């Protein structure tokens, strides 16, 4: 590598490091506030590091049953919804990737139209209402069962698989479901992990569907509960618990809830990172 190339690599690395720091700083600020005392927060002393270190904000959260209930709802939606997403997306992407299946181009055009023209809120609400899904967890899962964007990525990955493997399975007498289960899916771990992460993050961070379709507060996911705390300062049971703790501020509790809502995805991502990167690269260059 010549000198210009080395200088470019150094400049590029420094620039990306600075951009990464800019993205991390807000999270560090929230994290610092969640571990700081109310006096430090109210005085504006907290920047990137905790001031007057305390765990009382997390003690308040752990004592609030409504936050635990919302956390459980989010886990159910994320795990169950992601499983349904992957099953349905793979079931549709596989036949659309095989050249011997007729009408696949027509189906792909219809799917592409849904990416360009999305149905407005009111028709979606009426459909959910007529299907009697209001105030059920299915209303948070069924409408987003298949993402057109994720479908195209998965189909692109399936197209790049060697057709000889599928032909060999058919010669051995395997049907389409057997071929997909025993041949296609074992080779598709990278793209399945990538799409699973996409779907899981979408389910975990979603609050708009709950805002539209859920009126029962017992079915609120964690992000919806977080929205109540941050926007309307509605601490619910945690508000009454503040009286039992010294040196606690609503702002500190809000920051602690934000950290709790982000933590599961941060923990899961490193285990899927290698599959995530590989799946995105293969799915993007195969046609």
Automatic annotation (TrEMBL):
Keywords annotated in UniProt: Cell membrane, Membrane, Transmembrane, Transmembrane helix, Transport
Encoding gene (name): lplC_2
Protein name: Protein LplC
BP GO terms, sorted: transmembrane transport
Organism phylogeny: Bacteria, Bacillati, Bacillota, Bacilli, Bacillales
Cellular compartments annotated: Cell membrane
The ABC transmembrane type-1 domain, residue ranges: 71-266
Membrane topology: Multi-pass membrane protein
Residues passing through the membrane, by range: 67-94, 106-126, 138-158, 179-201, 251-272
Keyword match Transmembrane: yes
GO cellular component terms, semicolon-separated: plasma membrane
Source species: Paenibacillus albilobatus
Gene3D superfamilies: MetI-like (1.10.3720.10)
């Amino acid at each position: 590598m010549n000198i210009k190339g080395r200088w470019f690599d150094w400049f590029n690395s420094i620039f990306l490091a600075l951009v990464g720091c800019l993205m991390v700083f807000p999270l560090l600020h929230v994290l610092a506030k969640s571990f700081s005392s109310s006096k430090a927060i109210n005085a504006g002393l907290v920047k990137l590091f905790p001031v007057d270190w305390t765990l009382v904000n997390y003690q308040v959260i752990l004592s609030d049953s409504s936050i635990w209930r919302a956390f459980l709802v989010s886990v159910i939606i994320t795990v169950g919804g992601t499983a349904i997403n992957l099953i349905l997306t793979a079931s549709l992407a596989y036949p659309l990737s095989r050249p011997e299946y007729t009408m696949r181009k027509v189906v792909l055009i219809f799917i592409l139209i849904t990416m360009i023209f999305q149905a407005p809120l009111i028709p979606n609400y009426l459909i959910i209402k007529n299907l009697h899904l209001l105030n059920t967890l299915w209303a948070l899962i069924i409408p987003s069962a298949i993402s057109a964007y994720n479908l195209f990525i998965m189909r692109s990955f399936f197209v790049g698989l060697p057709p000889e493997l599928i032909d060999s399975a058919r010669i051995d007498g395997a049907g389409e479901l057997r071929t997909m289960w025993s041949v296609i899916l074992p080779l598709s771990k990278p793209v399945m992990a990538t799409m699973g992460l996409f779907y899981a993050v979408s389910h975990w961070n979603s609050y708009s569907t709950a805002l539209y379709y859920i009126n029962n507060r017992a079915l609120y996911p964690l992000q919806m509960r977080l929205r109540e705390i941050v926007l309307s300062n509605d601490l619910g049971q945690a508000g009454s618990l503040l009286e039992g703790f010294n040196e606690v501020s609503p702002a500190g509790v809000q920051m602690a809830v934000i950290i709790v809502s982000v933590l599961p995805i941060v923990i899961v991502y490193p285990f899927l990172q290698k599959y995530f990167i590989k799946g995105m690269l293969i799915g993007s260059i195969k046609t």
